[in-house]
TrEMBL record:
Transmembrane segments: none annotated. Its cofactor is pyridoxal 5'-phosphate. Keywords: Pyridoxal phosphate. The keyword Calcium does not apply. Pfam families: PALP (PF00291). GO terms for biological process: cysteine biosynthetic process from serine. This is Cystathionine beta-synthase. One of its GO terms (molecular function) is transferase activity, transferring alkyl or aryl (other than methyl) groups. The keyword Cell division does not apply. It comes from the Bacteria. Belongs to the cysteine synthase/cystathionine beta-synthase family. Residues 11-312 form the Tryptophan synthase beta chain-like PALP domain. InterPro entries: Cys_Synth/Cystath_Beta-Synth, P-phosphate_BS, TrpB-like_PALP, TrpB-like_PALP_sf.
Length: 358
């Protein structure tokens, strides 16, 4: 059959080549008259909605080549949700079964999407150590060991994760910016994205600064600055970023600095990004942007071009970041602010009264 331009053989061929979009409003304060340029790499343009589509396909295809994954096999992974979606997308096309193990804090939207792709979802308790037998890491490993023809993706330590960002994501950013980039900012879940892109960019230009955005409660900044854990791991609400252990894909030596960001700033900026920039991104994207803005204000003495990787879509967090009740219940939105909000849902009669139309 003749191929026509613009027609793909399957959905997997649409992964990557996500857009780089200039931010115009939410970063104005960080400019401080220096006219920094903030460019967002919008990863929700990937078909399953996040940067993890890249590694889902890459890890599966690498496992196939090595003979670790055979027809009819089962893929098992510990995930915050997005890697599961990337794996599930590729598995649906290729005909594999999937079992994903998630901590309970992950959004219901992610769980529902995983089930929609045909995956089995296993939930584990929050607040347990990584080596605790109840953790999502431990449960996933145990399940994988019990099954025949099973591939344990192991995203935190699988070098195929790092490699796809070194060979694909990094070159995309370099080409899109024409090599004109001063700072790259991303978060660390597994470390694959930030480390892989960092290695590529620094080989092109060693002067490019690579900044890790880290939530309060994560141990990674301590390991970077002190080589040990100073503050014990805590809890945070933003999903998919920050760690309570050091993944092998997190290459701290490739980073130049860390910026800590709290939940409040992350969720506030998430709402601003959609109302001021039209970007419906998740809280981790806002956390990363907040870190970039903080770094620019404190550390950049001349106008700079800053690329910020925004990992996923806000549609996966409608029950959290865009749910006023959840925000109030979690101390991230005051009742007073909620009463003053314009973007609420009301009955027609109440709106007619407000506008004096009755």
């Amino acid at each position: 059959m003749n191929k026509s331009p613009g027609i793909y053989d399957n959905i997997l061929q649409t992964i990557g080549n996500t857009p780089l979009i200039r931010l115009n409003k939410v970063t104005q304060k960080a400019d401080q008259g220096l006219k920094h340029e903030f460019l967002a790499k919008i990863e929700y343009f990937n078909p399953a909605g996040s940067v993890k589509d890249r590694i889902g396909l890459a890890m599966i295809e690498a496992a196939e080549k090595r003979g670790e994954l055979k027809p009819g096999g089962t893929i098992v992974e510990a995930t915050a949700g997005n890697t599961g979606l990337g794996l599930a997308l590729a598995a649906a096309v290729k005909g594999y079964k999937c079992i994903f193990v998630l901590p309970e804090k992950m959004s219901e939207e992610k769980r529902a999407m995983l089930r929609a792709y045909g995956a089995r979802v296993v939930m584990t308790p929050m607040g347990v150590e990584p080596d605790d037998p109840r953790s999502h890491y431990s449960v996933a490993k145990k399940i994988a060991q019990s099954l025949d023809n099973c591939f344990y993706a192991n995203q935190f330590h699988n070098p195929d994760n790092f490699d796809v960002h070194y060979h694909v994501t990094g070159p995309e950013i370099w080409e899109q910016t024409g090599g004109n980039i001063d700072v790259f900012v991303a978060g660390v879940g597994t470390g694959g994205t930030l480390s892989g892109v960092a290695k590529f960019l620094k080989e092109k230009n060693p002067n490019i600064k690579v900044i890790c955005a880290d939530p309060y409660g994560s141990i990674l900044a301590d390991l970077f600055y002190h080589g040990k854990i100073v503050e014990p791991p805590g809890s945070w609400k933003v999903e998919g970023v920050g760690e309570d252990m050091l993944p092998e894909n997190c290459h701290l030596k490739l980073y130049d600095d860390f910026v800590k960001v709290n939940d409040q700033d992350s969720f506030d900026l998430t709402r601003r990004l959609i109302t001021e920039e039209g970007l419906c991104v998740g809280p981790s994207s806002a956390l990363i942007l907040k870190a970039a803005m903080t770094y620019a204000e404190k550390s950049l003495q001349k106008p700079s071009r800053i690329v910020v990787l925004m990992p996923d879509s806000g549609r996966a967090y409608m029950s959290k970041a865009f749910n006023d009740k959840w925000l109030v219940d979690n101390g991230l939105l005051s009742e007073e602010a909620l009463q003053k909000a314009f973007n609420v849902e009301v009955k027609a009669a109440d709106e007619m009264k407000r506008l004096n139309l009755l």
